Amino acid sequence: MKVRIGIALGQWPLQDHSADAILDLVDYFEALDVDSLWLSDRLVSSTLILEPVTFLAYIAGRLRKMKLGTSTLVLPTRNPIVLSAWAAMIRKIYWPLA
After folding, report:
1. DSSP code of residue 95
2. Rounded CA gap, 42 and 63, in Å?
3. Mind listing the pLDDT tens digit for each residue in 69-86?
């Protein structure tokens, strides 16, 4: 039996708010052989949050093994045609040969 470990990032996980800092964290997770990275969509938060659509697009082409996903997406706030186009593009970037 294989045990897989995924990480869910609820809010900004670092004190440093730079893009390089979050990329370093994602690279660190992949180096640790973390299976997947999950984000949740939130409309309101008192802290800085990672908007899942933008963030997953930002890191998708960088990863080699780690899977990406959203645990929740607030669908009524998103245009379904735009969301499906986003998902198709991310899939093409993330799995170019699939």
Report:
1. S
2. 24
3. 888 888 888 888 988 888
- Across-strand partners of 67? 36
What is the 8-class DSSP label of residue 58? Answer: H
Hey, what are 60's tokens?
């998708």
From 24, 25, 77, 86, select the one nearest 53 (Cα to Cα).
86
Tokens 């294989």 belong to residue: 2
This model's pTM is above 0.85: no
Cβ-contact 36, 68 below 8 angstroms: yes
Gap between the Cα atoms of 49 and 25, Å rounded:
15
**Among candidates 19, 91, 21, 94, which has minimal Cα distance to 60?**
94
Amino acid (1-letter code) at residue 34: V
The answer to whether residues 36 and 67 touch, using CB atoms and an 8 Å cutoff, is: yes
Q: Which two tokens stand for residue 88?
A: 């198709």
